[in-house]
From TrEMBL, chain A:
SUPFAM superfamilies: Periplasmic binding protein-like II. One of its GO terms (biological process) is peptide transport. This is Peptide/nickel transport system substrate-binding protein. It holds the Pfam family SBP_bac_5. Belongs to the bacterial solute-binding protein 5 family. It comes from Sedimentitalea nanhaiensis. Keywords: Signal. PANTHER family: PERIPLASMIC BINDING COMPONENT OF ABC TRANSPORTER (PTHR30290). GO terms for molecular function: peptide transmembrane transporter activity.
From TrEMBL, chain B:
The keyword Plastid does not apply. This is Peptide/nickel transport system permease protein. Its main location: membrane. It comes from the Bacteria. Pfam families: BPD_transp_1, BPD_transp_1_N. SUPFAM superfamilies: MetI-like. It comes from Sedimentitalea nanhaiensis. PANTHER family: DIPEPTIDE TRANSPORT SYSTEM PERMEASE PROTEIN DPPB-RELATED.
Length: 506, 305
């Protein structure tokens, strides 16, 4: 570690109580101290798949386009305008006079290099789905560039306003993903002055940030440490050495909200929780979940309202569609199943299980939610043999042989489009437990049409059938708590991205 | 003696090899490494691509041989997760863990041995009761709870110490106490038992009879003999501290090797886990060896063997 490498190794053996509490943070020295819970693998945004990575990406780099999180309106960022030349060609006019943090000027060469680099599968971009729809980019002139798509992909604008950031061509060619991860260089509102991999990140305000729709940063420095234990994070908050924490569990946030010195802000995220049922009979032809009445019984058996009120709290809501409500094409007008255990038992009896049955049941996170769901199922006679597995182990199981019923969650990697969720799970991939040809065909049309009305119509058809057939039992949306001191003024957005640029000192 | 050392070394190497084979296979059993690397958002194609790219599609034996042969040439590979050379990653983190381990065991020894001696001199006295109380409490208190209590008292209420981090020596005070206190009870009880045993032996009576001062009897004659099993125990505890300070490192956000190992297992980061296990087993081997040498120095009878 950089700061550990200095000459205090010897000093540590002669520990003496020096005066602690020097330079405690915050407003006084214009440094916002924040905490991450998880170790971020690589700051290079194309080589991590973490929420923490997205937070840093939005601060360090810019995309060609920007989606206003409040209005969902697309605005030019590094591009000033764009137009579809045809179904697979997008042309951009670039903003002039922008420079990267290392002084390199931004122009068409950077866009061409970045797009061609990330679109080439051989370069191993970790988040392939963010980039694998692009074929290449070509320069028209110094400030005009075209991005060519592999096939029609209407969500392109959404991706270009989110995960696709522009990198400096000369620097990236030399530094590569490892170099970029240790010394990131972008055009964004914050530049990076120190990285200790996984543990510590220090950002500094970009004084010459261009006139971006992200707004101008105000807080001078952002110092982020990875503190894995939530209790320690809260202790740091109390002692004044942290100004902001997030992803704080609901019970802790409730207690902190009663204290005068902190603000607790709650905002929903795009992540939803759902049960996926083996309608296709992948775990066996005689599997009870292949019967529609059993699947309906499951949907009626669970009191989703109670789960939200007792466990998730905050801005979580009960959902009935197989997508997050704000996503483009996520029709809310589908069959929903009210909590009715009697009806659930009756349906099970009609399906030929008057005494219920027992089944394997899996989950990979949120044990408390998964257990609550399991007890609702037990109550109507579906005896669950609950298995909590590591994500990778459950995924392997589901890819190979499927699971009769499992509790899953999906965050749509913050893409505000139904193609980022429904189309990922109902197009005969290894995690598709229903294998419904009709649903797949509709989703194919919706995913590739450039006519928004056609897209909406076909997503709606697919979502209605998924709900009627109860391939999934959608449960609830997630939420996140942001806790900060009274010195900080911040309004979180519903996409679970911490935006340092919009933070202010009170 | 040389033959004895060589035999011990050969045995130790076999142990290290076996441990690495077991850990390698266990990681594959605990979940598909390609899915773990790809993460939640990876598509089926991504996972397939990762499987080919990292060579998970090859037989396990071939993969293990690949790792072993490059490890033997000093190349520990690149972390799947951080995309950084494992050697430099571990070197950075080990520094933290070593400081913590050395401070922790020093704290444990400096409190446990005097307390154990004092307790043995006056069995069933107040000091013996106090020592017993401290050791029972140390054994019973989980580290995560004790750590948080220290944070609440010294970082929040009194404001004397920083709650977490590793940016100055002061940051290591609380982690040292928590880690050291966990190792203390066993060392203290062993010191007390050893001292009680030795103090009632004939040669101590002889030493007293020939008029040796009480200090000389206690420290030159008694402690030197009583401490032998303590040295072996401390060596094992030291190895445990270097590999097992996961809880303490996580509470105090120290980002040391123990926490890295724990996280790497969850992430199926094979090269990092394998390298850490190698390093940890080497530590055990070295410390056990050192304790043998130290014991031989303390007890001339062992030198002959």
């Amino acid at each position: 570690m950089k700061y550990a490498r200095s000459n205090w190794t010897a000093a540590a053996t002669a520990i003496c109580v020096a005066c602690a509490g020097s330079a405690w943070a915050g407003k006084a020295d214009d440094t916002l101290n924040a905490a991450f819970t998880k170790e971020l693998e690589n700051v290079d945004s194309y080589f991590n798949s973490s929420r923490e990575g997205v937070v840093l990406q939005r601060a360090i780099w810019d995309g060609l386009i920007y989606r206003d999180p409040a209005t969902n309106e697309y605005k030019g960022n590094l591009a000033t305008s764009w137009e579809w030349i045809d179904d697979t060609t997008l042309e951009f006019k670039l903003r002039e006079g922008v420079t990267f943090h290392n002084g390199e000027p931004f122009n068409a060469d950077d866009v061409v290099y970045t797009v061609n680099f990330v679109a080439d599968e051989a370069n191993g971009v970790k988040t392939q789905r963010n980039v694998n729809w692009m074929k290449s980019a070509e320069k028209i002139d110094e400030y005009t560039v075209r991005i060519l798509l592999k096939e029609p992909f209407p969500a392109a604008i959404e991706f270009l306003s989110g995960p696709v950031s522009m990198y400096p061509n000369e620097y990236y060619a030399e530094a590569g993903p490892s170099g970029m991860g240790l010394k990131p260089v972008g055009t964004g509102p914050y530049k990076v002055i120190d990285v200790v991999p996984g543990a510590h990140f220090v950002l500094e305000k970009n004084e010459t940030y261009h006139d971006s729709p992200k707004g101008q940063p105000e807080i001078g420095k952002v110092d982020i440490r990875t503190i894995p234990d939530v209790n320690t994070q809260i202790a740091e908050l109390f002692s004044g050495s942290l100004d902001l924490i997030w992803q704080t569990p609901a019970d802790q946030a409730e207690k902190l909200a009663t204290m005068d010195q902190f603000t607790v802000a709650n905002e929903s995220t795009m992540r939803i929780g759902y049960l996926t049922l083996d309608a296709a009979g992948r775990t066996g032809e005689d599997n009870p979940f292949t019967k529609l009445k059993v699947r309906q019984a499951v949907a009626h058996a669970i009191d989703r309202e109670a789960l939200v009120n007792a466990l998730l709290k905050g801005k979580s809501q009960v959902i009935s569609t197989a997508c997050y409500p704000s996503q483009f094409g996520c029709d809310q007008n589908v069959t929903s199943y009210e909590y009715d255990p009697e009806k659930a038992r009756a349906l099970l009896a009609e399906a030929g299980y008057p005494d219920g049955f027992s089944t394997d049941y899996y989950a990979y996170r949120d044990r408390d939610y998964a257990e609550a769901i399991s007890s609702f199922l037990n109550a109507v006679g579906i005896e669950t043999n609950f298995n909590m597995l590591q994500y990778s182990a459950l995924r392997e199981l589901r890819m190979k042989e499927g699971s009769p019923v499992s509790f899953q969650t999906w965050g749509s990697y913050s893409i505000n489009d139904t193609s980022a969720i429904t189309s990922q799970f109902f197009k005969f991939g290894s995690l598709d437990d229903s294998r419904d040809q009709e649903v797949k065909d509709w989703l194919d049309i919706a995913d590739s049409s450039t006519d928004p009305e056609v897209r909406k119509e076909h997503y709606s058809k697919a979502l209605k059938k998924i709900a009627d057939q109860v391939y999934w039992v959608p449960m609830f949306s997630y939420n996140t708590n942001y806790v900060f001191t009274k010195d900080v003024d911040y309004t979180p957005t519903p996409d679970e991205v911490l935006r340092f640029t919009t933070m202010r000192w009170n | 003696m040389l033959q004895f050392i060589l035999k011990r070394l050969g045995l130790a190497l076999l142990v290290a090899l076996t441990v690495s084979i077991i850990s390698f296979s266990l990681l594959f059993l605990s979940g598909d490494p390609a899915s773990a690397i790809g993460g939640e958002t990876a598509t089926d194609q991504d996972i397939e691509a990762i499987r080919v790219l990292y060579g998970f599609d090859r037989p396990l034996v071939v993969q293990y041989w690949d790792w072993l042969s490059s490890a033997l040439t000093g190349d520990l590979g690149e972390s799947y997760y951080f995309k950084l050379p494992v050697a430099s990653l571990i070197a950075d983190r080990l520094q933290i863990t070593m400081i913590l381990g050395v401070c922790g065991i020093s704290f444990a020894l400096l409190t446990a041995v005097p307390l154990g001696v004092a307790a043995a001199i006056r069995p069933n006295s107040f000091i013996d009761r106090l020592a017993l109380f401290l050791s029972v409490a140390g054994q019973a208190m989980p580290s995560f709870w004790f750590g948080l209590i220290l944070i609440v008292v010294f970082a929040i209420q009194l404001g004397w110490l920083p709650p977490s981090g590793a940016s100055s020596p002061v940051h290591f005070i609380m982690p040292t106490i928590v880690l050291g206190y966990y190792a203390m009870p066993a060392i203290m009880r062993l010191t007390r038992a050893g001292m009680l045993d030795v103090l009632s032996s004939d040669y101590i009576r002889t030493a007293r009879a020939k008029g040796a001062s009480e200090g000389r009897v206690l420290f030159k004659h008694a402690l030197r003999n009583a401490i032998i099993p303590v040295v072996s125990l401390a060596a094992v505890q030291m190895g445990f501290m270097l590999g097992g300070s996961i809880v303490v490192e996580s509470i105090f956000a120290l980002h040391g090797a123990g926490y890295l190992a724990w996280e790497s297992i969850a992430r199926n980061d094979l090269p990092t886990v394998q390298a850490l296990i190698l390093v940890f087993s080497l530590f055990y081997i070295i410390f056990t060896f050192l304790s043998d040498v130290l014991n031989a120095w303390l007890d001339p009878r062992m030198r002959a063997g």
